[in-house]
Every structure is written in structure tokens, then in C-alpha cells.
Amino acid sequence: MLKDLVIKNRSYRRFYQDRAVTCGQLKELINIGRLTASGANRQSVRYILSYESQKNEDIFQCLRWAGYLEDWDGPEEGEKPAAYIVMLEPVGVNAPHDEGIIGQTILLAATEQGLGGCFLANIDRIMLRDILHLEEKYDIKLVIALGYPKEEVVLEEISETDNIKYYRDTKKVHHVPKIKLEDLILNC
Ligand SMILES: Cc1cc2nc3c(=O)[nH]c(=O)nc-3n(C[C@H](O)[C@H](O)[C@H](O)COP(=O)(O)O)c2cc1C
User: Fold this and answer.
1) What is the pLDDT of residue 31?
2) Residues near ligand 1 with C-beta < 6 Å?
């Protein structure tokens, strides 16, 4: 069921770093993502793939992980992502929702294949641009980190007035509060 896939598709931040994700796997994810809706059907998002250790490490240095977990600086060696998809858009193009729609589709497809991932918007874009030797004509929109998940993530039902910050318990299980349905729909 789609709902089960959506529940399984959490933001994973710890991975089996040694389990490779291939270029072919990444291409197939984008092959699925490219079929989604697109504002005015412009399809302006472009991609840079990373699946080799040195490039992965370079990209990793540009990313900021889990801001609510103040005592955690991000995945340690051995638990870092095995691959990345960097999502780009030409400077000046105004298609603000496309990368989210594509990105979520990519993550759902990845989850279906046993992978897991995480969106990253908190990026040192100047450093990443430099590392990727990115042409001036592109902006960096999002990075999707991917790999085989090495952590358990569970959802917690909350009211809209409760704390929305995710947290980790003593067994390193990651808990993500989600606001209950009744608090979200305003008219019934
Ligand atoms: C657009 C977007 C940007 C995000 N950027 C980051 C980020 O820079 N670093 C990070 O660790 N998580 C990032 N996340 C992951 C969110 O923190 C995560 O979606 C949220 O905590 C809810 O967890 P869930 O995805 O498991 O439901 C981002 C998510 C989205 C949708």
C-alpha cells in the first residue's frame, strides 16, 4: 500500500556506508522522478550524481545534519551516505515546487528498493558549488543523501500545540512527531 511506503519513507541519517549505491540505481531513481508533474511542464531541474567515496566525502563536508539534535554533528565514519543526488535549477527559473515533487518521488522509489534517504537544504552552497565545479548558470536547490538505512525511525502522534522537534532515545531510535489529522483539517 502507498501509505505503508510513505510511513517507511523517513528521513534517514545513518547508513551502512560500505553498501554501495550504483550509478545505475541513481539513474533509475531520476528516471522515475522525471515523470512527475512540473510547473508549466518546464522540467528545468538538473542533477549531479555522486556514488564514489572521495566525491561523497567532499559533498558530505558541505551538508548540515539534524539541527534539532544539538549534541550530534551528523553521521560518523561508517554511517555516512553511500550516494548523493544534487538537484540544480538554472538561475532565474521560477519553478519553486518542482524539486520537492521530484525529490519526494525519488525518495519513495528509493524506499521501495530498500534504500533510504534524506533531503538536505541546509548546505554550504558556496563550498559545494566549488567542489562540483558547477557552471554559474545553475543554482543548487536540494541534496538527497541515499544509502541503506542503519537506524530505526518511528513516528509519534502529537497535537499541534506539542513540540514538533524530532529526538533520539537512549537506544538511538529516532522519533519524529507528526501532527494528528484532526488538527490539520480546519473545516470538518
Ligand atoms: C525541504 C527539506 C529540507 C530538509 N533539509 C534538511 C537538512 O538540511 N538537514 C537534515 O538533517 N534534514 C533535513 N530535512 C529533513 C527533515 O528534518 C525531516 O523531513 C523532518 O525532520 C521530518 O522527518 P521525516 O522526514 O522522517 O518525516 C529536510 C527536509 C525537507 C523536506
Assistant:
1) 98
2) 10-11, 13, 64-66, 118-122, 153, 166, 176
In tens, the pLDDT along 89-142 reads: 999 997 779 999 999 999 999 999 999 999 999 999 999 999 999 999 999 999
Q: What is the pLDDT of residue 94?
A: 77
The DSSP bridge partners found for residue 143 are 86, 120
CA of 156 to the centre of ligand 1 (A): 16
CB-side neighbour CA atoms (13 Å) of 155: 12
Q: Which homologous superfamily does the CATH classification assign to the domain defined by 2-151?
A: NADH Oxidase (3.40.109.10)
Q: Compute, in angstroms, the gap from residue 59 CA to the centroid of ligand 1.
A: 17
Q: Domain locations in the chain?
A: 2-151, 152-188
43-88, pLDDT tens digit by residue? 999 999 999 999 999 999 999 999 999 999 999 999 999 999 999 9
Q: Quick one: which atom of ligand 1 is closest to the CA of 74?
A: 11
Q: Which CATH architecture has domain 152-188?
A: Single Sheet (2.20)
**Residue 12 Cα: closest atom of ligand 1:** 26
